């Protein structure tokens, strides 16, 4: 079976790439993915999120075997994987007054919170399912680049749902799931893979002093899929002409690993363009 890394060998779009380009900062996208500038550091939240995903994968694998995961084992697994992730990522930037051990403790607490919220009646259908599907517009025209990604989890209970795991610094606004691009991308891909219309759910653990678990469900329509494809077409035109713009009001700015390159972008733009060519 092909893996996500296999699909990455050719030019493609993914949810993370599209979200970065359209919603976070097109210049950040360009510095990372187009001009291929090395990041100055790895944000601690990125390493933390990777660790949490790996723990949830392990928990879900146990559930898929129709066994019950043990909370203390999962918490210990987070601790081990987190310290391993810190070594692997190397140059991690932590928030002020936050340490590796602080985040290890927080991660164990979030893991316990997520486990307390598991519905034993949900059947695990698949875990970490990679995909590479064509991007097709409303007129049946296929774009050159495919859409690739990996679906965290699919469960079955009164219908099928695609699940994505999240940790969050704050509780989600009511309509965040409704307006997110991620369900559009993943449900579009899942329908192409399996011919099934299903729902989407974000399972979110909020990093309160006492962690809080939230679930946010949403669906998507064919018209929303078509709108997504038109946005991808627009993004491709912008890339072709190197129309990249810094989003200086983005809440990602303070922790952006491309901040130094961004600050000199207007002076170095001609050099960047020549390098990319």
Provide an overview of this structure.
The chain has 277 residues and is of the alpha/beta class. It has 2 domains: 1-34 and 122-271, Lambda Exonuclease, Chain A; 41-118, no CATH class. Helices cover 48% and strands 18% of the residues. The chain is built from 11 helices and 8 strands. Strands 1, 4, 5, 6, 7 and 8 form a 6-stranded mixed sheet that branches. A two-stranded parallel ribbon has the order 2-3. A hairpin with a 3-residue loop joins strand 5 (147-156) and strand 6 (160-168). Helix 2 packs antiparallel against helix 8 and helix 5 runs antiparallel to helix 6 (100-116). The radius of gyration is 20 Å and the shape is globular. It starts with a helix and ends with a helix.
In short:
48% of the residues lie in helices and 18% in strands.
CATH topology of the largest domain: Lambda Exonuclease, Chain A
Q: How many domains would you count in the coordinates? A: 2
Helix content: 40-55%
- Rg from Cα: 20 Å
Helix count, per DSSP?
11
* Average pLDDT reading: 94
Work out the strand percent.
Answer: 15-25%
The rounded distance between the terminal residues' Cα atoms is 35 Å
Query: According to CATH, what is the class of the largest domain?
Result: Alpha Beta
List the SSEs and their pairings.
Elements lengths: L3 H4 L5 E2 H10 L1 H9 L7 E2 H21 L6 H19 L2 E2 L6 H17 L6 E11 L13 E10 L3 E9 L7 H4 L1 H14 L4 E8 L5 E7 L3 H19 L18 H5 L1 H12 L1
Parallel strand pairs: 1-5, 2-3, 6-7
Antiparallel strand pairs: 4-5, 5-6, 7-8
């Amino acid at each position: 079976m092909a893996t996500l890394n296999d699909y990455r060998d050719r030019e493609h779009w993914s949810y993370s790439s599209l979200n970065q380009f359209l919603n976070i900062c097109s210049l950040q996208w360009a510095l990372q993915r187009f001009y291929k500038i090395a990041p100055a550091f790895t944000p601690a939240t990125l390493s933390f999120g990777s660790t949490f995903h790996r723990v949830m994968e392990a928990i879900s694998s146990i559930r898929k075997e129709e066994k019950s995961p043990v909370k203390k084992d999962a918490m210990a697994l987070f601790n081990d994987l987190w310290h391993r992730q810190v070594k692997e990522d190397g140059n991690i930037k932590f928030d002020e007054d936050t340490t590796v051990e602080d985040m290890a403790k927080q991660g164990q607490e979030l893991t316990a919170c997520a486990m307390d919220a598991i519905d034993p009646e949900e059947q695990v259908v698949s875990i970490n399912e990679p995909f590479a599907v064509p991007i097709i517009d409303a007129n049946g025209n296929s774009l050159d680049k495919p859409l690739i990604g990996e679906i965290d989890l699919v469960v079955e209970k009164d219908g099928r749902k695609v699940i994505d795991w999240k940790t969050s610094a704050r509780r989600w606004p009511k309509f965040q799931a409704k307006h997110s691009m991620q369900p559009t991308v993943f449900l579009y891909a899942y329908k192409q893979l399996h011919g099934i219309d299903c729902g989407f759910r974000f399972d979110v653990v909020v990093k309160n002093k006492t962690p809080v678990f939230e679930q946010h469900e949403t669906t998507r329509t064919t018209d929303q899929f078509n709108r997504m494809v038109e946005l991808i077409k627009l993004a491709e035109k912008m890339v072709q002409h190197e129309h990249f713009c810094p989003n200086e009001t983005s809440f990602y700015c303070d922790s952006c690993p491309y901040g130094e390159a961004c600050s000199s972008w207007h002076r170095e733009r001609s050099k960047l363009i020549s390098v990319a060519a």
